[in-house]
Design goal:
The complex is a heterodimer of chains A (89) and B (517). Chain A is an alpha+beta fold and 89 residues long. Chain A contains two helices and seven strands. Chain B is mainly α. Classes of the chains: A alpha+beta (89), B mainly alpha (517). Bound molecules: fe (ii) ion (2 copies).
Chain lengths: 89, 517
């Protein structure tokens, strides 16, 4: 199964997003690089708004992630509750 | 009585519908083919433009909000960087040459990308891709502007960045990235989207931005790191647009497959050839390395691109054929490129140098199959010669590839001891190529590529000297005249890093920053 991935700038906001990703995706692998963090997950990945809000302690709009995003791989599907990445193989 | 606003906010999907397709209309007194004149001639068949959807479902209002936030963050850092003499915090002054390469080779492409997306966005009859192209065209002009702003700080202190746009349109090796984008924007709207949106953004852009920006961070260049990440944050949206384009075109009509496959093959190779500059930057120009070119290629192309092409197999798309040759070149590409620039270091807007002992050891470790056998001996010889005062500068102009415009310096696939030459006769003229892939691209569209502005040919034809130059006078020095035409100052902007003004100034200023004087 191919990996999907998402990479974020390392900062205080994305720290919570990474925590939420790790909680929502038990098979996720973290790859830390200078000033960025890359999360690899086999097959597909999901980020839930409610999990991020729990970690941040404030309301969060998933589109806010645009500000800290570096790159990703996989088909994107986003609505107000979930951001998903997947390969169809 | 106050008007009662409805409690229910629109969901993301509904808002996207309302703010894109909901704002579109069907023309009543003009014909569609008059409004969208370029949409049919490439042979791509589209039956239902409404099948297009942006998976991020980003609408213009949200776009402005998040872009403004990115700008605020970026400019706060640019100011702080300038106020604190951030340029003195980089690992060593050799690093700054990567910035020179970037501003003259890449930033002007951001501007052309802006123009390209404005153009194709105008040409698509569907509201969905039109909005996505509008956003990308705005992103691209933002990238050009923020890069110029960030790097202008280096221009106050270092040589070679003073006239980057003039350089981009003239300097021999900068015709490689320039002609790549010129090729794309002179194609039809669908080919442009496959070329830039898919092949460049989706398949190759990670190799440009991630190592370059991570490399900047690793080498203490906060200014570059910040504009890089700020630009890169738009990239995920661009990549997604590129992938959606491919899926959309292929799902619309089975006749589209062979056209799209040909474009993917062509543009993956074209893009890869441009990335030669990135390969040598990663392996030679970053004083502190993040990963080797070969490693980056394996992660971002072989692994990630492999997953992508496996996924697209359901449409009948296959991995571009050039991937096989690229795999053979990955042990050699950066070394052959750096050797070339070291040779032609008298005609560049940045400095070159030979790697030191530690750096050679790193190269040996990263390239066990090739470095010690093919490249170390030649570097040791050049280093020896330089120490004796014979630093070699090649003044003979090389033969260029008619398609990618790179000098014929690459070796035969599988034989790193033999230079690869290909040629084609077309209408009584001979054309030269670096590879079978560049040759095949030419053969498919010779009328386009015979028009290429080839820097070496132009110099020999006398078109690259300042106005009023008389090349027939006794003792005429063609290189000196060409450098003037490039707006480069001999001995300041070019030649070896060792002994350069940049090197001297950086040492002196850093000394002042850490000592009482
Ligand atoms: Fe860009
Ligand atoms: Fe070529």
């Amino acid at each position: 199964m191919s990996n999907v991935f998402i990479a974020l700038q390392t900062n205080e906001e994305s720290r919570h997003i990474v925590e939420a990703l790790l909680e929502d995706n038990p098979t996720a692998v973290v790859d830390e690089q200078p000033a960025m963090v890359k999360i690899n997950v086999p097959g597909s990945l999901v980020l839930r708004r409610t999990t991020v809000e729990e970690k941040m302690g404030r309301p969060f709009d998933l589109q806010e992630m645009q500000v800290n995003l570096i790159t990703l791989s996989g088909h994107v599907d986003e609505d107000e509750d979930e951001f998903r990445l997947s390969w169809n193989d | 009585m106050d008007m009662q606003a409805s409690k229910k906010k629109l969901g993301l999907k509904e808002r996207y519908q309302v703010m894109t397709r909901g704002l579109d209309w069907t023309p009543s007194y003009q014909k569609m083919e008059d409004i969208y004149p370029y949409v049919a001639y490439e042979g791509i068949k589209i039956h239902d433009w409404d099948k297009w959807e942006d998976p991020f479902r980003l609408t213009m209002d949200a776009y402005w909000k998040y872009q403004a936030e990115k700008e605020r963050k970026l400019y706060a850092i640019i100011d702080a960087y300038a106020q604190n003499n951030g340029h003195l915090g980089v690992t060593d002054a050799r690093y700054i040459n990567t910035v020179k390469l970037f501003i003259s080779g890449i930033s002007p492409l951001e501007y052309v990308a802006h123009r390209g997306f404005t153009h194709v966005g105008r040409q698509f009859p569907g509201a969905g891709p039109r909005v996505a192209c509008l956003m990308q065209s705005l992103d691209e002009i933002r990238h050009a502007q923020t890069q110029v702003h960030s790097i202008s700080n280096y221009n106050k202190y270092y040589n070679g960045v003073h006239d980057f746009h003039h350089a981009h349109d003239r300097i021999w090796f900068l015709s490689v990235p320039k002609s790549f984008f010129d090729d794309a924007i002179t194609a039809g709207p669908f080919e442009f989207m496959v070329a830039i949106g898919f092949s460049f953004e989706y398949v190759l852009t990670n190799l440009l931005f991630v190592p370059f920006v991570s490399g900047a961070a690793y080498n203490g260049d906060m200014g570059t790191m910040t504009f890089g990440f700020s630009a890169q944050s738009d990239e995920a949206r661009h990549m997604t647009l590129g992938l959606e384009v491919i899926k959309f075109i292929l799902e619309q009509d089975p006749d589209n497959l062979p056209i799209v496959q040909r474009w993917i093959d062509k543009w993956t190779w074209r893009g890869y050839r441009v990335l030669t500059l990135v390969a040598m930057m990663m392996d030679y120009m970053l004083p502190k390395r993040t990963m080797s070119w070969k490693e980056a290629w394996e992660v971002y192309f072989e692994e990630n691109g492999g997953a992508l092409f496996k996924d697209l197999a359901r449409y009948g798309i296959t991995m571009p054929k050039c991937a096989e040759q690229i795999a053979l070149e990955k042990d050699h590409l950066s070394h052959q490129a750096w050797s070339t620039f070291y040779n032609y270091g008298a005609a560049t807007n940045f400095h070159t140098w030979m790697p030191d002992e530690d750096e050679m050891a790193w190269l040996t470790a990263k390239y066990p199959e090739s470095f010690d056998k093919h490249y170390r001996p030649r570097y040791e010889y050049w280093r020896e010669q330089a120490a004796k005062g014979n630093r070699f500068y090649n003044k003979t102009l090389p033969m260029l590839c008619q398609t990618c415009q790179i000098p014929l310096v690459f070796t035969e696939p599988g034989d790193p001891t033999k230079i690869c030459y290909r040629e084609v006769d077309f209408k009584d003229e001979k054309y030269h190529f670096c590879s079978d892939h560049c040759k095949a691209i030419f053969e498919h569209e010779p009328e386009k590529y015979v028009q290429a502005w080839m820097p070496v040919h132009q110099i020999y034809q006398g078109n690259c000297f300042p106005e009023g130059t008389d090349p027939t006078v006794e003792g005429f020095d063609p290189l000196a005249a060409v450098l003037k035409y490039y707006h480069l100052e001999h001995g300041r902007d070019n030649l070896d890093f060792e002994g350069s003004e940049d090197q001297k100034n950086f040492d002196e200023w850093r000394g002042m920053a850490t000592k009482n004087v």
